[in-house]
Amino acid sequence: MRKLNKDRAFKGLTAFLALILFLLSVGILYKLIYSSRLSFEAFGFSFIFSREWDPVQKLFGALPFIWGTFVSSTLALVIALPISIGIAIFLVELAPRWMRQPVSFTIELLAAIPSVIYGLWGLFVLAPIMQNWIEPFLGKYLGFSPFFKGYPLGVGMLTGGIIIAIMIIPTISSISREVLSAVPGHQKEAALAIGMTKWEALWRVMLPYGKSGITGAVLLGYGRALGETMAITMVIGNTPSLSLSLFDPAYTIASVIANEFTEATYELYIASLIELGLILFVITFILNAFARFLLWRMKRFEEVRP
Amino acid sequence: MRNILILTLTLTLVIAFGITSAAEIINGAGATFPYPLYSKWFYTYEKSTGVKINYQSIGSGGGIQQVKAGTVDFGASDAPLPKEEIDKHGLIQFPMVSGAVAVIYNLPGIPIGLKLTSEVVADIYFGKIMKWNDQRIKEINPNLRIPELPIIVVHRSDGSGTTNIFTWFLSDVSNEWKTKVGSGTSVKWPVGIGGKGNEGVAGLVRGTKGAIGYVELAYALQTKMTYAILRNKDGNYVYPTLETTQAAAANASIPPDFYVRFTYAKGKDSYPIAGFTYLILRKNMDRNKLSTILKFVEWAYKNGDRDAKELSYVPIPETVKTKVLTELKKL
């Protein structure tokens, strides 16, 4: 009887904690909507599609920031994903035993570095390297495409994407490593036993087995990329533009909020910045929902398959 | 035994709270630009008088909002508030110290002292002059071998009083700037890339050949940046220094609401990009706290100049100090 009560109490407690988190999210959403109503009244839905951001004329539009956030995060993911999966595979399958612990510890340590440090490193070390070596090289050989055009500034979308990629690699790789090491040994052994090479076992058995876990890792990384503020603010160039070229400076939602919120002196200005926050919230929500949908479809597809 | 313990604890608590409420604590919040100086002043002032002043450098915008809402005793802002704003919320503002903005650049082989006219600076920030070896720059620097580099314009990306002063200056110089871009803590820049904070702008300029930017004078001096000498309204080329900033402030006209703007000021020694940083109070604030703040302002005006100069801030002219104290005493 006593035991039952304890169980009940524990269940109640955990339910309460989960509820708090849910209420917090709802509260944030409500507050974001409420505080941005001034900007919504002034601009309506054109806020999302307008390219104008002029605090002096009191005109605000979010498009360049949405674009910058989306492109920089996606770029970061494109760079980080193969590297992270590679690291995870190496650590689980290929690395000699004595190397595994020190290397994974070092990678996890990277996650603990404050983002302002990444930002300053990006500005003082990475940006000059990009400007003097990498961007001229890319411009020379890939300059025919619209993505690598323009003067190499050192700061811009590409440098921003690389900085974020470096920051999300620890997240994605350490979760992927956990996921891969959780693949049951008999699965792998069975694959090897029927004559698969290591490569085939990896691609046909282990990675598909860990698919949903790895998707979770990617989502966490992407979430961090979308919301990353300090580091990217230092290196993205902070210019609201809609350029295709990765050399050009851009601007993200999180950066403009961090840059301008402290000195926003009138209410419409503050409301517009908060509406940007709301848009970021919604984008994150949609991406999460989309990823869940993908997972759900993959699962269903597998179940239907004979 | 237990009772004694409780009694002692209670007494200690009572005494402790008694002491803290007896000592005066003033809370303020706002601008980041004067923060190093303010914290030094508040520290010295507490040591000599026992009055504690807390200051949070959360940015001018936050400082203005909090003083309006009454959550702090004073706000601090790099830009003065317009008269309507002051009247509407029953506030009073007054300058504490001034600062100047230096135009910094990165041109290989060219040390401190590239000459620029104010008009050229404006046209560079407009994107009209795009190369360093432009005829207009070469003409005023006949003795320098200016490299053939594109000009990379750098500005502050975060809202800041420095940007406010700099865009005031550009608006004074160029009518087109005034109508098309205007002035403020953040503006819509026609060209260029944004760096966060002084360190961001300085970092971009240092790392990019052909870059031009603007930072607070104190920052430029402390980090040994190469800065330009500018032609002022009277046609003289002046270095940004404490003296030339003071010369500009001395020529400013001071209206009763202290909305002072002395960018592109007259006078042969005046440096053209400078401004005051302000404290803001509510007129109907607690009388005791008001008199405490008043005492502090008097003290800072009298004893604070040495600290200010040490940290590369520029003291405000004596005439302005007298005017402020007269106004404050009317409250």
Considering the chains and any ligands shown, give keywords for the structure:
heterodimer; A: 306 residues; mainly alpha; two-stranded antiparallel ribbon; 13 helices; 1% strand; globular; B: 331 residues; alpha/beta; eight-stranded mixed β-sheet; three-stranded mixed β-sheet; 14 helices
Structural class of chain B: alpha/beta
Q: What is the chains' assembly state?
A: heterodimer
Q: What general outline of chain B do the C-alpha atoms trace?
A: elongated
The residue-averaged pLDDT of chain A reads 91
Low-confidence stretches of chain B: 17-22
Indicate the percent of residues in helices of chain A: over 70%
Largest interface: A-B, 33 and 34 residues
Q: Classify the secondary structure makeup of chain A into a structural class.
A: mainly alpha
Runs of chain A in which pLDDT lies below 50 for 5 or more consecutive residues are: none
What pattern of helices and strands is seen along the backbone of chain B? HEHEHEHEEHHEHHEHEHEEHEHHH
* Outline of chain A: globular
Distance between the termini of chain B: 55 Å
Q: Tell me the number of strands of chain A.
A: 2
Strand content range of chain A: under 5%
Question: Cα-atom Rg of chain B, whole angstroms?
Answer: 23 Å
Terminal Cα span of chain A: 48 Å
- The helix count of chain A comes to 13
Largest sheet of chain B: 8 strands, mixed
Helix-strand sequence of chain A: HHHEEHHHHHHHHHH
